[in-house]
Design goal:
heterodimer; A: mainly alpha; Non-ribosomal Peptide Synthetase Peptidyl Carrier Protein, Chain A; B: alpha+beta; Thiol Ester Dehydrase, Chain A; six-stranded antiparallel beta sheet
Chain lengths: 80, 131
């Protein structure tokens, strides 16, 4: 993975906008599900599906469960 | 998980008079295209056009009862209608596992309905979760 964190965050923001169907969403590394109304349990699954497909990676279930915010999600993306 | 990529599933569905009547009742969609043969023929169809969303009922049956495991829930589905379905048409249904996302127990199918002339009448994707 050669992308830097800013580039990953930019790409994640676009995925969040598409999946959550909200053009106004702006995420940061500290953003969590509590900060985004549409980020519910089903949309969380949809986000994981789109993120895996977009970056061509496979997450482990325990990694997903450990995420507390977007930054930790990015850490896992960078580890893949 | 009892699925692997490229697994295929098959079924046959018939849009018979009972199903048509039941769907008219559930949907309350009595558009003449679905209920008036003369009207439908005047618009270039061979007969009354069956509601495309009857196929969504068949998809519900397939996911709910046609898979090797029943701990399933539909997350999302798409459908594109390609050709009309008429009363008593026998439809061949095929669904193929296109993708498995193990981390979140998700299976994505591509599916297609074909009529007896093997013309595609509808196709799309269904994403299910294993609960």
């Amino acid at each position: 993975m050669t992308m830097d964190r800013n580039e990953i965050l930019k790409q994640l923001n676009k995925i969040f906008i598409d999946v959550l169907d909200d053009e106004e969403i702006v995420i940061s590394e500290s953003t969590s599900a509590n900060d985004v109304e549409e980020w519910d349990s089903l949309n969380h699954i949809m986000l994981v599906v789109e993120i895996e497909n977009h970056f061509g990676i496979k997450f482990k279930s325990n990694a997903i469960l450990s995420w507390k915010n977007v930054g930790e999600m990015m850490d896992t993306i960078l580890e893949n | 998980m009892k699925f692997k990529v490229s697994d295929s599933f098959y079924a046959e569905y018939v849009v018979n008079a009972q199903i048509h009547q039941l769907f008219l009742g559930i949907s309350n969609d009595h558009n003449p295209l679905h209920t008036d043969k003369e009207f439908a023929v005047s618009k270039g169809f061979k007969g009354k056009v069956m509601h495309g969303n009857i196929l969504n009922c068949f998809l519900s049956h397939f996911i709910g009862e046609g898979l090797p495991q029943n701990n399933v829930i539909i997350h999302s589905q798409t459908i594109q209608f390609k050709n009309p379905v008429y009363l008593d048409d026998k439809l061949q249904f095929q669904a193929k596992v296109d993708q498995i996302i193990k981390s979140v127990n998700v299976v994505i199918f591509k599916y297609e309905f074909k009529n007896e002339s093997l013309k595609s009448v509808a196709r799309g994707n269904i994403q299910i979760g294993l609960v």
